[in-house]
Amino acid sequence: VLMRGAGCTINDIWDRDYDRKVTRTANRPLAAGDISTFQSFIFLGGQLSLALCVLLCLNYYSIVLGAASLSLVITYPLMKRITYWPQLVLGLTFNWGALLGWSAVKGSCEWSVCLPLYFAGVMWTLIYDTIYAHQDKKDDIIIGVKSTALRFQEDTKQWLSGFSLAMLLSLCITGVNCNQTFPYYSAVAAIGAHLAHQIYTLDIDKPEDCWKKFTSNRTVGVLLFTGIVFGNL
Fold this sequence. Notes:
- Helices cover 76% and strands 0% of the residues.
- It is mostly helical.
- It has two domains: 1-57, no CATH class; 69-231, no CATH class.
- The mean pLDDT is 94.
- Helix 9 (111-133) runs antiparallel to helix 14.
- Its cofactor is Mg(2+).
- One of its GO terms (biological process) is isoprenoid biosynthetic process.
- Its main location: membrane.
């Protein structure tokens, strides 16, 4: 929560001038001038300090692994300026917990489990954040911001379907490599059905539908978490 929050703060600091030009983001505190850049840095310092306190409670392996994510947290908001794949870098950043969570408990990463789980998370981020990016594509073209939504355009659903298949396969590999049980695979199947419906009914030209589909990914998280818990029980 703290590091994702810090990532969002950094994103708003980097993008404050862009956000003013996009209808949906013009009311964000920095963009609207409700808080100053200096105040946002104080808030960011608080988030990072608290996150460091959590990190220092872990083993040395996890401290190094957690610290390694900071470069991604700081730089991923810049990617939309230089590549049409900023969602990929976002995925690499936001899913670091798939590695850190395991090492915090076990003392190191079991790569046969952690890497496919991490990859599945990256694929999931590509799905939901591409849908998210379709909300702003008209404004993004005007201000010169890049995204997978602009890269894929009318082929978006084919790309999202490919990412979904890769995600589901990776989740299955993860399950096999850590001896998961029937509830886990049932959850993965439910996730597949949810993603299929989400992509099939998606209207990339309606921002309100893109928002609805984006937020429905909370269901994916709940399903996977439930499947892991009951699979272990």
